[in-house]
Amino acid sequence: MNTEFDQPLTFGQRLADRVADFGGSWRFIIFFFVTLMVWVAINSTLIVLHPFDPYPFIFLNLMLSCIAAIQAPVIMMSQNRQEERDRLRAEYDYRVNLKAELEVRQMHEKKMDHLLLYQWQRLLEIQQIQTELMQEVLGEASQSARGPTSSV
Predict the structure, then answer these.
(1) 95 vs 89: CA distance, rounded Å
(2) Which residues are CB-neighbours of 55 under 8 A, at least 6 positions away?
(3) How far, in whole angstroms, is CA 144 from its chain's centroid?
(4) In this model, does residue 148 exceed pLDDT 90?
């Protein structure tokens, strides 16, 4: 399955996967948090000397919005590729499960055929024993109907 899906990726697909991997990691969260703290610290301490982004941090908000606007579709592209892979994996799982079910059914049928054959053989043995018993009973009944035999 992986050989079917792992065809050469385009530059955009590789980039989307890398951005999604980095954007969904603790490294990104820590890096982003540190960057925000540095930004706020620099613009708060340089307030006396003319900061480039004063207190409401409008430029920072613009940058965060731009990052979110670019990161979201890139992550969605990566998720779409993962969804295609998952869909392919589900199809292969279905095929494997179907094959296993058919093999189990076939084994079950063979076992049932074997059990039926054994039961038929046992039934024939019982029938043979019953026939022999009936012949013995009929033999004794015919002897008693003739009467006692006398020995001279």
Answers:
(1) 10
(2) 43, 44, 47
(3) 77
(4) no
